[in-house]
Amino acid sequence: MAFQAGLINIGGFLACHRFVSHVTGFATFFGYEVSEHRVEHALGMLTVPLFFLFGAMLSGQLVDIRLKLHKKPKYYIVFGLIFLMLLSVSIGGHLHLFGTFGEPLESAHSYFLLAILCLACGLQNGAITAVSKSVVRTTHLTGITTDLGVGLVRVLNRKKLGAEISNEFRSNLMRAGIIFFFGFGSVLGGFAFKKHGYAGFLIPSATSGILFSIMLYFQVLKKEEAAPK
Question: At 106, phi and psi to the nearest 5?
Fold first, then answer.
């Protein structure tokens, strides 16, 4: 998931010069656009993150609420939606629906592209947040890096803390893994998007498609096969 988020983030940045997997940048650009007296663009910078919020809310309904009600979360719907969004971005880019790859963020179709990518990231982050009980984030690294820093200090002071940090080694490995694979996805995406443009989104489409297929099999198809006839 972190690998996929790195790909989406670098893809959005190279496509229209905006990062899409975290909301902080949009708040920063909002302030910049206001200072430049470009009200229309400033409002756009406020509107796009709402799609990230909506994606997180949708995951909350499909995953978090169902977990709290002791029902099976519908992961296959979440990953299926992400797959369709990323595939539509790749196909739409090929059909020139989002303008020229790499052009500055000026036109309405660029905002539409950002909205789709933010929605996909919100869905992903919301699902992982719910499953991990708000411990893991995969679409941005600020919180994970902070947790890793605190975790490393706990490990260095393990003799003082004793059994209180029994799981800290494993947690630090997971945090380091998330950071590594996000960076790896960004590096791979940098080469792929520069060479293939919108077709680069086929890579995160493939990863989300694989996850969708796995979840669909285990949550729906296998369940139907096991049902008595």
Answer: -130, -35
